[in-house]
Amino acid sequence: MIAALIGFAAIANAIVVNKMILRELPLIFFVGLRAFLAGSILFLYARRVTHRFSREYLRVDIGSLLIVAVLTTLVPALLKAYAMKNMLVSKAALIGSIDPFVTALVAYLWFDERLTRRKWMGVFLVFLGVLSSCFYHSGIEQSLHAFLFFSLPELAAFGSVALGRLGWMSAQRLLKQERYSPIELNAVTMIISGLIGLTVAAFLEDGHSYQALTSWPLWGKIGYSVLVGNIFGFTTYGYALKRYSANFATLLGFSTPIFVTIFGWLLLSEAVPATIAVSGVLISLGVLIFYREELRV
C-alpha cells in the first residue's frame, strides 16, 4: 500500500507541475504535446513488448478510436487544464475526485446496479462537499463567472469528469473486443488526441509563445509531467488494481487531492481557504462511508 501511495503522491506532484507549465505555454499546445509524447513512448514500449499492433484493426476501428481519443484524452484534458489554470489546484483536484461517484450513479441509472443506503449517504456527502467548494472563488474565477454561483473553470472541471466517463465507457467496449491491451489503447488514443491538439493549437494559439520551449528547465518540467503524470500514473493505478480490489484501488486514489493540496501549498504558495478545507472534510467523510467495507481489506 505504501508503494501505491507514493505513486499517487508522484501523480499529485505532476499535476502541480502541470499548472506551473501552463504559466509558460499555451493551453492547447501543452495538452497536445504532452499527450503525443506520452502516447509515443507507450506505443514504442507496447510494440517492443507485445508485437500485437495490427494496421487492419486500426483501419477498422479508426472511428471508434477517434471518439475514444476525443472523449478521454483530448477534450477532458483541455477542460481540466483550463480549470487548473484558472482556479486553485486543490479545488480542481477536489472536483476531479467525483469521477468514481459519477460512475456509480451512471451504473445505477443505466445498468440498474444497486446502491445501499450507506453508499447513497456517501454519494450525497461527496457531492455536497464538491458543491460547497464552488462557493469560494479566487479573483480570476470571479472574472469568469458563468451563472448562479458557478464559474467557467468550475463548469470546465465538471465537464471534464462527465465527458471522461463517457469516453471510458466507449474505451471499455473496445477493450472487450480484445484487439488492444489497455496500454496499446492508451498509446493510440494519446497519439491521436495529441496530433489533433497540436493541429488545433497551430491555428488558434499564438506561435510566439512557443519561444518558451527554448528553456531547458521547462523541458524538464514537461518530461516530468509526461513520465510521471501520464506514464507512471497509468502504471501505478494498474499496480493498485492488480494488488488490490478495484474499489480499494479507487479509495487509495483519493489520496491524490490531499497530496495536490500539500504540493500546491509548497510549490505554488496556494493557501487553502476554509471553504475548500471544509469541502475536503465532507468529501473524505463521504468516501469513507461509501467504501467502508473496503477499509476492512
Quick structural overview:
The protein is 79% helix and 2% strand.
- Main structural class: mainly alpha
Helix content: over 70%
Q: How many structural domains can be distinguished in the coordinates?
A: 1
Separation of termini? 11 Å
- Beta-strand content: under 5%
How many helices? The count is: 13
Describe the global form.
globular
Q: Compute the CA-based radius of gyration.
A: 19 Å
Describe it for me?
It is built from 13 helices and two strands; from the N terminus they run H-H-H-H-H-H-H-E-E-H-H-H-H-H-H. Helix 2 (27-49) runs antiparallel to helix 3 (55-86) and helix 2 (27-49) packs antiparallel against helix 9 (182-204). A two-stranded antiparallel sheet has the order 1-2. The protein is an all-alpha fold and 297 residues long. The protein has helices at residues 2-22, 27-49, 55-86, 89-96, 99-111, 117-133, 139-143, 152-176, 182-204, 216-243, 246-253, 255-268, 274-290, and strands spanning 145-147, 150-151. The chain has one domain (2-296).
